Amino acid sequence: MDKEYVGFAALPNQLHRKSVKKGFDFTLMVAGESGLGKSTLINSLFLTNLYEDRQVPDASARTTQTLTIERRAVEIEEGGIKVKLTLVDTPGFGDSVDCSDCWLPVVRFIEEQFEQYLRDESGLNRKNIQDSRVHCCLYFISPFGRGLRPLDVAFLRAVHEKVNIIPVIAKADALMPRETQVLKQKIRDQLKEEEINIYQFPECDSDEDEEFKKQNEEMKGSIPFAVVGSCEVVRDGGTRPVRGRRYSWGTVEVENPHHCDFLNLRRMLVQTHLQDLKEVTHDLLYEGYRARCLQNLARPGARDRASRSKLSRQSATEIPLPMLPLADTEKLIREKDEELRRMQEMLEKMQAQMQQNQAQGEQSDSL
Amino acid sequence: MSKGLPEARTDSAMSELVPEPRPKPAVPMKPVSINSNLLGYIGIDTIIEQMRKKTMKTGFDFNIMVVGQSGLGKSTLVNTLFKSQVSRKASSWNREEKIPKTVEIKAIGHVIEEGGVKMKLTVIDTPGFGDQINNENCWEPIEKYINEQYEKFLKEEVNIARKKRIPDTRVHCCLYFISPTGHSLRPLDLEFMKHLSKVVNIIPVIAKADTMTLEEKSEFKQRVRKELEVNGIEFYPQKEFDEDLEDKTENDKIRQESMPFAVVGSDKEYQVNGKRVLGRKTPWGIIEVENLNHCEFALLRDFVIRTHLQDLKEVTHNIHYETYRAKRLNDNGGLPPGEGLLGTVLPPVPATPCPTAE
User: What is the pLDDT of residues A178-229, one digit of tens each?
Assistant: First the structure.
């Protein structure tokens, strides 16, 4: 009986213990126009005050501001698990009068993280790879518009194949319930029309109970989440204190599912899908980037393009990637190509020359 | 300015024509007693009543323009202001309705009547403003439209055979909708107001103000006022056009405390405390549009319609239009604009224009 007991049922526990010791890294990007309550929502989600010291610039300052990428890191510990959360902020997005191409710095940033990881992965010392890749992008949509604006569409199309997008409707207390439903449907329709791939929350396992499955379906159906954030606790006339916003006509409770989808967002993002977001980033988005990258490195027009795109882990180490930045490597290869071509041309000319001489020689011989 | 016609100080009397609240008439309708203390009663004080009767018959024009990004509730607010469907809401949820690629100008006229007084109201909508990725110079079509109306009026005025009542299509008031971000104005807001505050009366309003708490509202308003001041933007009522001390104190209060008005609009009615009110119903409460504790819609309405309507028209006519006219005349070397008047012998341009009879 002892012979049949192998013991790997304890594997999950071992994994768990290792992860707990190692801790988790998670990089979350927030994007959207200024004034949509992004900072407040992040503070509400993670119960921190990450944006204490920030200065909000006024309009004239923003006229000349270009989009910058800011990173803030915070360590959150809960139940013995440590999470190193990195927040990537994009102040200046959508502010200028002319916002053309204002998403390019964001795209470049995401790709740089992939590039860095690719280099680290192909390098010699792989023990302590820092994963700075963006695992999720919360995109904030204005509740005042009529769905996605042209800028929203342009941004989402630029990043949807590079990062997990979770769209949220910001400041949802601007909307009455019916307006929220209509806006959500409009956004869903627009996303489908523009063929933008947002993060798909996975189906739950078939062995979960019906109640849970139903709940899950409901949650998925309420995407994009209409959220309200607040850093203030309101005591509403004797009842327990709640996080909320107090108006003259009533108080919006952030954690009340009848008031907004904050709880759904928190549950799906933080409580259940943190790991899945990382996995999708690694298995799908990063792999896609890597394949495209390596494909471009190969000589243009070379045979076996298909086989190259299926490069296995092993062969990756044979390519001297860490040596040069990728752009330079490409240039080098192109230069070598040119050289080869020139040499080939010369060879052909010489051959033709020789043939001519031979022919002439034969003629003169025969004469 | 006006040649002896009592138009100069009629704003207080004219405002009586705007229905409710109707202040007590300053002048008795008929002489009350025969045993008067005066040496004799002439009756010129009934001129006000005559003017009022005349205006009621002819009615008056009012042209209001709304500018702002789509979705800020412009049409709903105008409908709420005039308590009628004067502005067709862009079918918000219609898939075929696309954002126009350039700013369009759409003017729709309505005649609304109240208490026997007819108002020909024209609402000028500007769909497409601020909605593109690149919004450079998107105010240009608007500026062009405003100037075109001045030009039209000028041409009519300079005609020999002038119409008795020149149709007035000039924009009397431009409501500029500020997005309630809670931070500050956006660069586009500044650009627009900088360019247009010199040609038209701009009244900035904070749209969809039900997203801000009282503290947020007051902070935001302060910041906006300061930004406007720092950038030299004069919104209506402009300081330099206050005519007397009374005006100044009244307008100072409005400029420094109330404006920009934080408004909420609605065309739906709900039952609150046994009354039917215009509002927005949310799971956490009902926002009443006309409740001063909830938003400043009532202040905006009173300001634009009940107290300053005539003044808006006067400032447009006496200041903005005059500025345009002077510029045009200067450009033409002191001669009236030649286009459209070729072949006619033109009378000398009067030193001061005759105000149009209202």
Answer: 999 999 999 999 999 999 999 988 776 666 778 777 877 888 888 899 999 9
Say yes or no to pLDDT of A152 above 90: yes
Torsion sign across C-alpha atoms B303, B309, B311, B317: positive
The reply to whether omega before B21 is within 30° of 0 (cis) is: yes
- Compute φ and ψ for B197, nearest 5 degrees: -70, -15
pLDDT at A261: 92
Q: What angle do CA B127, B133, B135 make, to 5 degrees?
A: 60
DSSP A173-209: GGS-HHHHHHHHHHHHHHHHHTT-----PPPPPTTS-
Q: Smallest CA–CA separation between B103 and chain A, in Å?
A: 14
The pTM of the full predicted model, rounded to 2 decimals, is: 0.76
Q: Would you give the distance in Å from CA A109 to the centre of its chain?
A: 10
Within 8 A by CB and 6+ apart from A62, the residues are A34, A92, A95, A96, B184, B186, B187
Count of other CB atoms within 10 angstroms of residue A96:
22
What letter represents residue A284's amino acid?
L
Nearest-neighbour CA in chain B from A318: distance (Å)? 45
> Does the distance separating the beta carbons of B227 and A58 come in below 8 Å?
yes
A283 has a pLDDT exceeding 80: yes
B190 vs A contacts (CB less than 8 Å): 59-60, 63
Judging contacts by C-beta atoms under 8 Å, the chain A residues touching residue B210 are 173-174, 247
How far does the CA of residue A95 sit from the closest CA of chain B (Å)? 7
Supply B336's token pair: 């009236």
Closest CA to A29 of A190, A201, A221, A163: A163
Cα of B159 to nearest chain A Cα, Å: 42
Report the 10 Å Cβ neighbour count for A83: 16
- Residues 4-63 of chain B with CB under 8 A from chain A are none
**Chain B contacts of A36, Cβ < 8 Å?**
181
The pair of three-digit structure tokens given for residue B69, joined into one six-digit string: 């990004």
Which of A99, A142, A146, A185 to mutate: most B Cβ within 10 Å?
A146
Residue B214 sits at the chain A interface (C-beta within 8 Å): yes
* Whether B187 and A63 lie within 8 Å, measured CB to CB: yes
* Between residues A122 and A258, the one the model is more confident about: A258
Mean pLDDT of B140-148: 94
